[in-house]
Amino acid sequence: MVRASLGVNPWSVLYEGLEHHTSLSFGMISAAVGVVVLLLWIPLRQRPTFGTVANIVVLAYSSDLGLSLIPQHLGLRARTALLAGGVLLNGFSVAVYVGARFGPGPRDGLMTGASAATGRSIRLIRTLIEITVLAVGWVLGGSVGVGTVLYALTVGPITQFFIPRFAYRGRDESRASPTPRRRRP
After folding, report:
1. DSSP secondary structure letter of residue 169
2. Taking the CB of residue 63, how many other CB atoms lie within 10 A of it?
3. Which helix (H) or strand (E) holds 159?
4. Which residue, 175, 18, 49, 171, is CA-closest to 112?
C-alpha cells in the first residue's frame, strides 16, 4: 500500500506522521508503536504470547524489506492492484493468524480485546480503531489518500468475514457436532 501511493493504511499514516518528528525508520516506529499498544491491553486483560512478539518483529523488518524491494513510481494499474491487494490481503492475513490462536499482534489484540470487552463486532471495533489512528496520524503530518479511507472502512469487515473461516477449533471443538443432538426421553 505504501508503494501504491494512493494512500496507506491508517497505522502507516501514524508511522509516517511520527517519522516527521523522530529519526527512527518506518519499521522501527512500527515496532515502538506496537509496544505502546501492548500497554493498552492491560485494562482489556489481554496477554502477549509468542505470536504477539513475533508479529512486532516480523512486521518491522518485513515493512522495511518490502519498501526496499518494491519499486517506486509504478503505473496507475500496478498501484491500484497493490492497493486492492494490500487491503484484501491484510484483512485475510489478520483473520488467518488471529484464527490460528498463537496470539494476535498488538493492534489486533487491541481489536479482539475491545471486541470481547464491549460485546461489539470485530467489524465495528476495527473500523473505530482505524479511524482514530488515521486522525492522529493525519494531525502529525502523515499522508492520507483514497486508499487510506478504503482501508479504514473495509479492513474490519474483511477481517470479520474471514475469521470464522480460519478460526482454529481444538480437538474437542472439531469433534463436536455442528448441531446439538436431542436427548431421547
Report:
1. -
2. 20
3. helix 146-166
4. 49
- Expressed as residue numbers, the domain containing 158 is 10-168
Return the residue matching grid coordinates 498501484: 79
**Helix, strand, or coil here: 17?**
helix
In total, how many domains does the chain have? 1
User: What DSSP designation does 129 have?
Assistant: H
Phi, psi at residue 182, to the nearest 5°?
-85, 140
pLDDT tens per residue, range 50-74: 888 887 788 778 878 888 888 888 9
The C-alpha cell at 77 is 494499474
CA separation, residue 135 to residues 99, 132, 140, 142, 148 (Å): 29, 5, 9, 9, 11
Query: According to the model, what pLDDT value does residue 171 have?
Result: 65
**pTM recorded for the entire structure:** 0.80
Q: Which amino acid is at 3?
A: R
Using alpha carbons only, what angle is made at residue 177 by residues 98 and 118, rounded to the nearest 5 degrees?
A: 40
36 inside domain: yes
Tell me the three state secondary structure of residue 5: coil
For residues 106 and 34, the answer to whether their CB atoms sit within 8 Å is: yes
111 inside domain: yes
Contact 88, 154 (CB under 8 A): no
Q: What does the longest C-alpha to C-alpha distance in the chain come to?
A: 73
